[in-house]
Write a structure and sequence with these properties.
The protein is of the alpha/beta class and 341 residues long. The chain folds into two domains: 211 residues, 3-Layer(bba) Sandwich (FAD/NAD(P)-binding domain), CATH 3.50.50.60; 119 residues, 3-Layer(bba) Sandwich (FAD/NAD(P)-binding domain). 24% of the residues lie in helices and 29% in strands. The chain is built from seven helices and 22 strands. Strands 1, 2, 5, 6, 7, 8 and 21 form a seven-stranded mixed β-sheet that branches. The chain has a five-stranded parallel β-sheet with strand order 10-17-11-12-13, covered by helices on one side. Helix 1 runs parallel beside helix 3. Its cofactor is FAD.
């Protein structure tokens, strides 16, 4: 029989929740692997929002996503997790004779006794703004992803959207930009405090019922035409940058074929254990759903702890579900390491 390098748990997703799951799994003594389709750890925070402030993690009044990710990666790998990046999970097969799973990606086969899915929203693509000229000027003033705020310094910036991302970008951009205009077709859906800060800021607000009618320019974006859909009123704004923040189209992709219970692109779990319907397969973070679910980093890391602890008991029914305070766990782990040496 072929000998495989079998891990105790494999975490699908290297975002904030997956990284904390890896850290905590290592604390509990599990041989741990992380698989992520992106080329670097950090998930959507580093791929889409590196310059965006995060407000919902304990210990930080606010922290830039890239700075938070730096600490999360350091913590996540500190207990021995092995990252496998640029790999997309494709299939999961239980091998009854071996007593573990074969997890196949687009690059390799991985072998694991348990799985913790922390895939966020799955694969995601920004929703495109459909208006004349928008596609023509993508990469020439029109952008869906903000990698650096400095690119907006001293520019006239128009932002489209009404959720947390659009409001946060408006608040972040206006101190650097020459002018900032936010356009939205409905009421704002961001956190109440952020919306109040927006109204108190110098950002020009055009809502509700305002939409982009057309974007124009030559070699680079030069102006954005906005109209009020009920009255037909039009405004032409000078613009060297248009940030489109109208959401993402998410898809769980191959995970939908694994036999998991899926509701509205989320995996149904038991919130007491974070177990899915597959033995030894758990999930945590934005990828899951259950009654009363909140999609926050803070709640996601708590779910990761629950998932890891129940994975430990799944592997060894005699193990303690609650390992106790982290200080005690790490001291025990360090003593074990010293003894092994």
């Amino acid at each position: 029989m072929t000998q495989h390098d079998v891990f105790d748990t494999t975490i699908i997703g290297g975002g904030p929740v997956g990284l904390f799951a890896a850290f905590y799994a290592g604390m509990r003594g599990l041989k741990t692997k992380i698989i992520d389709s992106l080329p670097e750890l950090g998930g959507q925070l580093i791929a889409v929002y590196p310059e965006k402030y995060i407000y919902d993690v304990a210990g930080f009044p606010k922290v830039l996503a890239k700075d938070y990710v730096k600490g999360a990666v350091e913590q996540g790998l500190s207990t021995g997790a092995v990252p496998c990046l640029g790999e997309t999970a494709q299939s999961l097969e239980w091998l009854p004779e071996a007593g573990y799973y074969r997890l196949t990606t687009d690059k390799a086969d991985h072998y694991t006794r348990t799985v913790i899915i922390c895939a966020g929203v799955g694969s995601f693509e920004p929703k495109r703004l459909e208006a004349p000229g928008v596609r023509e000027f993508e990469g020439r003033g029109v952008t869906y992803l903000v990698r650096s705020l400095e690119e907006f310094r001293d520019k006239d910036v128009v932002i489209v959207g009404g959720g947390d991302s659009a409001v946060d970008w408006a608040l972040a951009v206006h101190p650097l930009a020459r002018s900032t205009t936010l356009v939205h077709r409905s009421k704002f859906r961001a956190h109440e405090r952020s919306v109040q800060q927006l109204h108190d800021s110098p950002v020009a607000l055009y809502y509700p019922f305002y939409e982009v009618k057309e974007v124009r320019g030559n070699a680079w974006l030069e102006e954005v035409v906005v109209h009020q859909t009920r009255t037909g009123e039009e405004h032409v704004f000078p613009a060297q940058a248009l940030i489109v923040a109208i959401g993402f189209a998410a898809d769980l992709g191959p995970l939908k074929t694994w036999g998991l219970t899926i509701e509205r692109n989320s995996i149904v779990v038991d919130p007491r254990t974070m177990a899915t319907g597959l033995p030894g397969v758990f999930a945590a973070g934005d990828v899951v759903t259950y009654p009363g679910k909140f999609k926050l980093i803070a709640t996601g890391v708590a779910e990761a702890i629950t998932a890891v602890n129940h994975a430990v008991v799944h592997l060894d029914p005699s193990a303690r579900l609650d390992a106790g305070h982290s200080t005690n766990v790490m001291e025990k782990r360090e003593r074990t390491a010293v003894s092994a040496d």
